[in-house]
Design goal:
The protein is of the alpha+beta class and about 60 residues long. The chain has one domain (about 1-45): ACT domain (Alpha-Beta Plaits). The protein has two helices and two strands, in the order H-E-E-H. It has helices at about 1-10, 40-45, and strands at about 15-20, 25-35. Strands 1-2 form a two-stranded antiparallel ribbon. It is globular and about 35 Å long.
Length: about 60
């Protein structure tokens, strides 16, 4: 979570909402960001270490 928040804040992308769920093996996060910046956020999140999958929902 720290790396996700750091990457987005470095590029002035504000997180409007955030949901996190984890278990012993894996975790996932759902983020709500400004639609105008969502493609930038998607590119940044793909480069976060240990990311398995990133997708954009509207």
């Amino acid at each position: 979570m720290s790396e996700i928040n750091t990457q987005l804040s470095k590029h002035k992308i504000n997180i409007l909402g955030q949901y996190l769920k984890t278990n012993d093996a894996i975790g996932y996060v759902v983020l709500d960001v400004n639609k105008h910046l969502s493609k930038n956020a998607l590119a940044l999140l793909r480069n976060v270490k240990a990311t398995i999958k990133v997708r954009l929902l509207y």
